Amino acid sequence: MGNDKILILDDEQIVVDAITKNLSRRNYEIYSGKDGKEGLALYHEVNPILIILDLRMPVMDGVEFLRKINLSPSDSCSVIVLTGHGSDEEMERCFELGISAFLRKPFNIYELLGIVSHSIALKKVEKELRSYRDHLEELVEKRTIELQATNDMLQKEIVERTNAEVLATRSLRDKEVLLREIHHRVKNNLQIVSSLLDLQTKYIKDPETLDMFKDSQNRLKTMALLHEKLYQSDNMAEIDFAKYLTNLLDHLYRSYCIDTSCILMTTDIDKATIGLDTAVPCGLIVNELVSNSLKHAFKGQQGGQLNVHLHKLDDGRFKLTVSDTGVGLPDGIDLKNSKTLGLRLVNALVIEQLEGTLEFDTNNGTSFWIVFRELKYTTRGTKDGR
Questions:
Q1: d(CA 138, CA 40)
Q2: N or C, which terminus of the chain has less Cβ within 10 Å?
Q3: CATH class for the region spanning 238-386
Q4: Do residues 293 and 301 lie in contact, with contact meaning Cβ atoms separated by under 8 Å?
Q5: CB count in 10 Å sphere of residue 210
Q6: How far separated are the first and last CA of the chain, in Å rounded?
Q7: Same fold flag, 5-107 and 238-386
Q8: Other C-beta atoms within 10 Å of 370: how many?
Q9: Domain-wise residue ranges, the chain
Q10: How far apart (Å, rounded) are the C-alpha atoms in residues 366 and 384?
């Protein structure tokens, strides 16, 4: 297997030479170009795992280059942007186009080397996780077929009812062990990505970028906690959602180092068990809304109160309420077109995933009300919320 390939695009040859010299010592395979047009040809030719990109270049600048390659989360390539003149708007646009890091010139070469190393490591882990995810259903189906074939053969060979019941119990136990192993491995892989993000944050100086990484870590923790609860539970199909939410809220308080004597949290959560398909989006919604309150709601205040309520209504639906006594949201905010990823994510999860309703009020702080039904999957790929 060859060395990792890195593509450097910068019209300043002295910058290219300095980066090449230091990266070559670490056995990376280096390619370089002086503008985005050369970069496009090299990108398709060498298929690099990492691109170090200058924004201001002749012929084709860095932003146009990013548009051309059209990065997506599933791509096997990361991009680090270097610039001496990048504005906040350009930085935001670059992150929207899929870059993983942003470093201003003049930069510290050791800081760049650290970001390069961790970006490549993270991309390799992401590739492994995608491969695991893509093959997971195939492996489960294959294992299920094997178990069914074994069960069919045993049923033909065994006549006595007692032996048939013993074999059926053993088969069920095998499937349960397999499901527990799947949830355990998913949780471990999510924790690996979270740890890599934590390592990455040690090289990030920009507070906004640091917040983005921390938000991503909390989202991963939210999903990992669900899988942890499932493989620890006696019921592999449903989760004790009240206990899960309590653990999630405790984690968020610790994550943001909140003084509980200043910001009081009250919870009123009905005991309920729900399936993973509903628990994942609901957990992410609570993560986003509570994180948003802890980070922004109480700025300039001595303290306040944060409330999280979950009740099951008479018609079988659930009502989730997250409210605070903070400074409130800006006037005229549109959740669907919000500038913050968190609020857009909440809106998408409620409408598209839970197929529920979302209302909010900014009088005397901020309150969100979400009403939804537990999603039932009757057949593969078919949702039935009734």
A1: 36
A2: N
A3: alpha beta
A4: no
A5: 14
A6: 52
A7: no
A8: 23
A9: 5-107, 121-236, 238-386
A10: 32
